[in-house]
Amino acid sequence: MAVPTAGPMHQAGQEWLLSSAPDPAPVLREWELDEFGEIPSGTLWRVAEAPLVESVAAIRRIGPDRLGPILGDVYSDVAWWLLPPDLGDDLDDLRLFTVRPAGWVLRCPPVLHSVQGRWWIERPDGSGRLTDPAVLAAAFGPGGYRTRTEAP
Question: What is the pTM of this model?
């Protein structure tokens, strides 16, 4: 099975994701078998893990123009947020997050379709755009991040 493509943005997103892999060939082989590809974090992004339901609510608060790639898994109720590689301590006080160290392996499907209940809620688009950790922390915080149009 060939890895599906659907336009330049999605192809660019998949290429960007693969550029994080030390060797993209094994990842592509896994995707062809409808399995997860294993891509280590650290070079272009880091990973913060949070519950899926709370992540969906935060996605709505943040809005599409400020989101980077987010991977979700319906079976494990987890979302993985791709954040800047130089991630500081913005999420340290939020108990819902587990920040993974550089080198942690993200087991992910290709950009265009799901595998075993795991899919890109927000797909990589190839631009390298990542969610701002401070905005993410605010969206999960007590008052929640609000766009200007939602502010009281």
Answer: 0.87
